[in-house]
Amino acid sequence: MVGDGACMFRAIAEQIYGDQEMHGEIRNLCMNYMANNQDHFRAFITEDYDAYIQRKRNPNVHGNHVELQAISEMFARPVEVYQYNDEPINVLLPREDPTADPPADGAPPANPPAPQNEQNPPFRLSYHRAVHYNAILAPNVPTIGVGLGLPGMVPGAADKDLLTKALAKSELEHIEETMLQDKIDLTDYQRTQADLEDQIARESLMTYLNDLEKARGEQAGPSEPSTSSATAPSESAAPPVESRGGLYEELLAAQSLEWDPYTDDVAIAEALLVSQQDFLSQQQNKPGPSSDEGPSSSG
């Protein structure tokens, strides 16, 4: 605890709020409680009681055993003070019911309540050099919130609930991450399949175009010389077939472009049409059969 005069209140705040910086709240509650119970605490104060309460409200004024007794009663928890030993040098117990009137003639009260000091864990403080307090915390026994009057409050239940929620959230995130990774892997597989199909389609198209070019080359080759003595008139000579290699070159260039099923289908249809037109042109330009017989003479 910070040695600023509020170390005792800091040690209590750490054990009941889990935050020593709330020492001002503990001090304020304590002094209000003592102001409202003057008859009980006045006998322990040697100076003017109101002046004492006002002085103790100063955030840098040290607390003592009187304030510890008030804190014990406020939160219904014992206070154990240790000093260089495992046995406490001082134990302050809360009154069972500070607001109840004492019974007449010293008779025991009817139906006394169960002692709170047997139910709630104590505040444990260590006292050093007669001027400084520290908090003693039991890591396996949570005590934060005990004595605040919260209904149904179980020390440590909030931490367990947070742990359960954290585990559930972690498991959910792991499942979502696994599902996302599966989708990514499936997407990669589908992309690979699409690339393979694209490559197969390109190779199939190029094979078809190569075969088509070979067929056109054979059809456009030189014809065998005629053995007939008669020659066809020069007017009937077949005109040279116009080269149509430009379309094929364009189709070859298509392999460097992205695959477009519609464009490739159109290109194939055009190639088939060109091939058909070339074949028909060659058939029309072939010379007809020549006659070896001369002109007939009359007898």
TrEMBL record:
Catalytic activity: Thiol-dependent hydrolysis of ester, thioester, amide, peptide and isopeptide bonds formed by the C-terminal Gly of ubiquitin (a 76-residue protein attached to proteins as an intracellular targeting signal)
Cross-referenced InterPro entries: OTU_dom, Papain-like_cys_pep_sf, Peptidase_C85-like
Matching Pfam families: OTU (PF02338)
Record-level GO BP terms: protein deubiquitination; proteolysis
Broad enzyme group: hydrolase
Domain OTU: 1-139
GO molecular function per UniProt: cysteine-type deubiquitinase activity; K63-linked deubiquitinase activity
Alphabetical list of SUPFAM superfamilies matching this protein: Cysteine proteinases (SSF54001)
E.C. code: 3.4.19.12
Composition-biased stretches (Pro residues): 105-115
Bias kind Low complexity: ranges: 222-240, 287-299
Swiss-Prot/TrEMBL keywords: Hydrolase, Protease, Ubl conjugation pathway
Chain segments carrying region Disordered: 92-122, 216-244, 279-299
Keyword Cell membrane included in the entry's annotation: no
Family note: Belongs to the peptidase C85 family.
Protein name: ubiquitinyl hydrolase 1
Source species of the chain: Caenorhabditis tropicalis
Lineage: Eukaryota, Metazoa, Ecdysozoa, Nematoda, Chromadorea
